[in-house]
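Running log. JK asked me to keep both predictions on one page so they can be read side by side. First protein, sequence followed by its tokens:
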Amino acid sequence: MEPLLPQVKPQRGGRWRDHRQVVEGMIFKDRTGCPWRDLPERFGPWQTVQHRFYRWAEDGTWERILTALQAEADAAGELDWTVSVDSTIVRAHQHAAGAKGGSRKPSAAPEEA
């Protein structure tokens, strides 16, 4: 995956965070579902991880990675392109969603014999 990522180059004299560390932060966020702000410090500043994730989404980096990995898996015979799509739609009347409206009268008590 590394050759498919953008070149590591410091911008504006700052220290560039390693791609591996940042990608691991992205994977951690995806697996746990935690907010960006709750990323553990071992992945670096959460803002860096978030900014790079969105920048790569915008510039097409994720699409290039997906395409390359799919091509590699397909060439190795590890990808099954069989797809099954099923869609069932049952339309109901707008009044079918709730219980019967109105008030119900209690039934009369049975007569004692």
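And the second, directly underneath as requested:
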Amino acid sequence: MADDAGHRPTGKDGGVVQNKQSETAIQTRLKDGSLKLYELEKEVPAVDAIRIRREFIECETGAKLYNLGIFSIDVERVVKRNCENMIGTVQVPVGIAGPLQVNGEFAAGSYYLPLATTEGALVASVNRGCSAITRAGGAEVRILHDGMTRAPVFAARSIVHAKQMVDWVTGHIAELRTAAESTTSHGKLIDISPFVAGTSVFFRMNFDTKDAMGMNMVTIASAKAAELIAQETGARLVALSGNMCTDKKPAAINGIMGRGRSVVAGVALSHDLISQVFKTDATTLFEVNYRKNLVGSARAGAMGFNAHAANVVAAIFIACGQDAAHSIDGSTCLTTVDPSPTGAYASVTLPSLPVGTVGGGTGIETQQECLNLLGVAGGGTPPGTNAKRLAEIIAAGVLAGELSLLGALAAQHLARAHQQLGRG
């Protein structure tokens, strides 16, 4: 296993440029600007390009970057698909929580959750929630909506022209579907939702992307459909993404209409279980959720009504090669606790969870191992089932995290737990 791009032995397979004079010449060219940092892979193998680039940055900044050069992943693939101007990797600790019993339509069984985080107490907290859910018989999980969106914005000549554009699009969905799907062997255009703001016209295109998260897929497909709209309506395409998608930003539209995989997870907890695991009672658990997650979030003007859903989403995303910026979508989660005669029913609703098991960072070796741990690496049979399974597992993990934090707050244990786990 290759473990150090900067400190391998010399030789044909050593990952070090054989001709020292050649390497010195490369460094000279970098300094005088005749060779750009991003051009190094054209001159030398990727592993050498990474080391030379890192050494150049060390000289330029005076910083020592030894540990960035220690890694085990296949950099030949990464520099082509995942990262430009690579100088190394950052290692994030990965903890495990579970087992977690998930009773979904796609994820059915016991799972161990890989959580990549530097936040002490997070893994321990999720682990406690997993224990409670598993003892309760498992989390019920269902997918409500599945579709990735892209929303190009057009400039109309007038509001009359804007309405004509909407009418044309709604009357020619089949033609637009054919155009969009001509760019992909997997993606399918589900529907198009029009939005008008004066002379700005947005068409929110919703795609089935199977096991891919699908942003690249829907962007290319939407470009083809947008080209046809502009051609047939005389409108001017201003931007392929008009922020009605909405991508990597908090937005009510994602919470209302859904984006990516929309998932709900719930579990029935008995009075005894709440007392034994969380050291509190159902009434207090309900009140903390009501006053903190619902009233507090509403008073703050938050778009999410939860305790820390993004914490769990981000930790699994980083471990499993998802786009970490999409963890903001996890913060739109709505957490509810309903009292019952036997205890309480807790649930989380995640309307916008953009996840995939193929493409992006999912093929990087360490991230793929985490996906393998969950049994969801690669494409599913039939296509789309692995991504849905991952979404259901994440939703159950979010539920575990929410329950544990609510329980700690209800029992007044939060500060003590942080102090014990080095987060004082």
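Observation for JK regarding the second prediction: The radius of gyration is 25 Å.
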